[in-house]
From TrEMBL:
It is found in: Cytoplasm, Cytosol; Nucleus, Nucleoplasm. One of its GO terms (molecular function) is unfolded protein binding. Its main location: cytoplasm. This is Protein SHQ1 homolog. The gene is SHQ1.
Amino acid sequence: MLTPAFDLSQDPDFLTIAIRVPYARVSEFDVYFEGSDFKFYAKPYFLRLTLPGRIVENGSEQGSYDADKGIFTIRLPKETPGQHFEGLNMLTALLAPRKSRTAKPLVEEIDASEIPEEVVDDEEFDWEVEQTPYEEVSESALNPQCHYGFGNLRSGVFQRLQDELNDVIDIKNPDFTPAAERRQKRLAAELAKFDPDHYLADFFEDEAIEQILKYNPWWTDKYSKMKAFLEKSQEEENHAALVSFSEEEKYQLRKFVNKSYLLDKKACRQVYYSLIDILLAYCYETRVTEGEKNVESAWNIRKLSPTLCWFETWTNVQDIMVSFGRRVLCYPLYRHFKLVMKAYRDTIKILQLGKSAVLKCLLDIHKIFQENDPAYILNDLYISDYCVWIQKVKSKKLATLAEALKEVSLTKAQLGLELEELETAALLVQEEETALKAAHSISGQQTLCSSSEASDSEDSNSTVSSGNEDSDSDSEQDELKDSPSETVNSLQGPFLEESSALLIVDGGACRNTAIQESDANQGKPLASSQPLGASGPLIEELGEQLKTTVQVSEPKSTTAVNHSNMQERDTK
């Protein structure tokens, strides 16, 4: 027989059951309902439900069939009109037959004080028994197989799965490693894995972190709607309808095998604590991937949850938060304390939304692990059982768990990784580097300013000097125009006193000393000419420079006068 796809909904007076039975023989079908029992049969489909409330047959029930869609729709009246049936979307729980549930183990040891007196054997007890000296025995020797899994109900699993062990969990030989030893090894592994450079890089360069923090997962909108709904109405049970399941998720729920779990008080508390741990890891993964799962999603979830990778057991919520914070800062790509606190707040929202939201998260985790080759073992150990168990949990329990989580406060100092010291040292180094850069920039600006001032002063000096020269030349030209005779005399006198002229005598060179202006007027020679010999080229060069100077400096009138004087001297 096949279990058909089905969906339940309700209004104040009726419960509606929609059953999808394609290719069924609709001419032959049976429907039975009484109290909380409902049965439907249409070959080859069979559906049996245990309803969360009671229904009654009073003639107002209705039924219809959509041939195009192959869906039977059955409306059944509630025994108590206005009653709200809780958990109609918990399909696995609805498929369960009615059974007596008890938290007591099937087999337990009865203390002698609880045995009736008539059962006590009055025979004399034989005290002659073999005695051995007392020896301290380790916990692993007393319990050769340690327990783990959902509610610590499993043991001996990894003895058969040694090849898959290293790819799934971090603990070695979990079947013979007690809980205290697991915790010690986990803490040591986290300290060894912590990378200060990676943490500081994400601490200072947090652009990607801020972008991740802005992402709103699906439960954010649901939580806002729930808060708005609760402000208008105080009926908390109705907000579970805010969370709905897709057809794929409904198919997952129908595939689970429903079963009951015999959990004592300690194991039940452990299940709730581990649920927080798993949800924290899932919230982190959903946020950093922005809801787009990838090949690393299974690794992230199981690595961030000590429950899944170390089979850790918990005694309080504070330890869960500290462990999660340490692992976020040690293992994934994005390692920032803000992500720890964001996942913490997301987990509180999911718990306050109720078991429908928690189940939706667990179904997503189950799908991620199922598609990952080694991680599917964790579905068998934890997630599948959680998906079945959570459907039977009361939402008030989850609300109490959310309140307990809200009361927890987490600081960086509690993580034991010296984060505050690292940040303080890094900030000091950053301030020193900033101060050095500022000093270098100031010194560079001062050097540029001094060099520019020097160049400006040089330019001004050159401007002033050129201006002075121009003014001097202008004044000299004005003086030459005003008194040409004085200029001729001033140029002629020194020339005649300090210079010498070149004379060509009979094809030879001789030296003729300068004649003073007063003696030239009297026609008296001052010195005789002397042969120059080897000093001829030097004298010729000096003579050419002298001629050039005289030609440039003297006016035409002065040159003519000097030329006539030279002719007179030669004739004499």
